Amino acid sequence: MTDLENRNIALCRFVPKSGREHELEELLDQHYPTLRQFGLVEDSPYALLRGQNEHGRIYFVEILHWKSEDAAEQAHKLPQVMSMWGAVSSVCEHMEFPHVFLVRSA
């Protein structure tokens, strides 16, 4: 993976509001296909993970690769994407989008 491709990795962590776990999962199921529809993300690799912390709280982690450095910025200009992000935000207690870089993969 080149340095340029490495900068395009997105890791997103979503903690749903209590009782909204299923709704968030359904929204996230449509997130990646929507971004692909507009040519904003690579076809792979992609992952949507579900976890549970030591207190029993459910959370989701999404890993995707933007097609370019400005793809996320382009997404902010699309009403369909912004509408989806608004819906996701409305069912989340917390969201975080840390910057990550691939160290190695197998």
Assembly classification: single chain
Relative helix content: 25-40%
Q: Helix/strand/pairing class, anyone?
A: alpha+beta
Any guess at the CATH architecture? 2-Layer Sandwich
Low-confidence stretches: none
CATH class: Alpha Beta
Task: Strand order, main sheet: write it out.
Answer: 2-3-1-4
Largest sheet properties: 4 strands, antiparallel
Q: Order of SSEs, N→C?
A: HEHEEHHE
Number of helices: 4
Query: Under CATH, the topology is which?
Result: Alpha-Beta Plaits
Gap between N and C termini, in Å? 12 Å
Mean pLDDT: 91
**What would you call the shape?**
globular
| Rg calculated over all Cα atoms | 14 Å
How many distinct domains? 1
Beta-strand segment tally: 4
Task: Give the DSSP E fraction (strand runs of 2 or more residues).
Answer: 25-35%
Which helices and strands appear, and what pairs or packs with what?
Blueprint: H1 3-6, E1 9-16, H2 21-37, E2 47-52, E3 58-65, H3 71-75, H4 79-90, E4 92-96
Antiparallel strand pairs: 1-3, 1-4, 2-3
Helix pairs in contact: 2-4
